[in-house]
Amino acid sequence: MVNRSRMGEGFVVAVSTTQVRAKGISGSVLRSVFSVGFLTLWLLLAVDGLLPHLEMFLFRGTVPFPAVLLKSLLVTLLVGVIVLQGRWSVPRRILYWWLLLLVYLVLDSLILLYRFAYPVDYLLFSYNAYYFFLLVTPLLYVLRGTLQQKTFLMVIVSSFIPLAGLGLIQYFSNQPLVPVESADNYFRVMSWSFHGQTRAFSLFSSPLSFGLYLSLVAVLLLSLSLSARRRLHRVLFFAGFFLASVSVYTTLTRVVFGLFGLTLASFFFLLWRNARFSFFLPLLHLLIGLFLAYGLAPLLASYRDVTNLFADDSLVMRFLEWQVWGREWLGADATTALFGTGIIQNDRFPLTQSVCIDNLYLAVGLHI
Question: What does DSSP say about strands 197-198 and 193-194: parallel, antiparallel, or unpaired?
């Protein structure tokens, strides 16, 4: 009887152990599937021309699947993981701000529909284009404990090398090398030529988008170089930072130059101080932006030429556009000043084909 009892206990223990191992394997598989799925979707969204170029290659120059499909898949994946894990921990402060934004956008959409009778698909498109990543921010907290930071950094750095290489070849060969427009006019690379010189855009939708990516990668590589313990790793990461810096120049986009400088300034500011002082950064960015827009141009007037990077004709055009849309936003009435006009910068709708804003603060204020 004793032996049978022990055998029974041993069986129960064996079964329990097997169940625990099965759950561990199942959880591990789910985490792996989620990590691969998220990283793939993130890469396709971050490199915003990668999917269109792949589609043009597969479907005779057309782009049948829009980027919103990727965003839908990303949201579905994040929500699915939350449901499977049965938990979702979001900092209370983040959740409050997110709920406030959500309530405001719902109220704003109702006001815009009532005042201007915009098509619903236009409003949904505008909210998706401007605020998608803000709206999914709480869902990203499911990544904690699921996606390893080291894996994420490895994907960013490894994808950077071929993307930067393609951009450098585009610039030095003075050839785009990939299609700059789809046959169905759904996708187009913006501003890829500068007075006969090809701007590096790699597989992005514009040199500007490429520059945003490069600025992020450059700071990550610099941070890794400063924190690496082995000398070889420090040298390799710094070489990557140097490559990213050179690639920034090949975009021939002054906004990218300014953004790259601001990113480095923010990095060294936080390195000098700490994250507690991060609330100063928007003010720092605003002051530097005002100097670049209104103070630097007169200082460089003697170098001005319409065919080089010191040309200020586009800056003057932007000043005029800012005046026009600024009056449209703040010069109408209190309701428009509080809830915007619903206008965005996008050429896919007849309503906005002639709109040029090129100012983040003005664009958001004008919209909502």
Answer: antiparallel
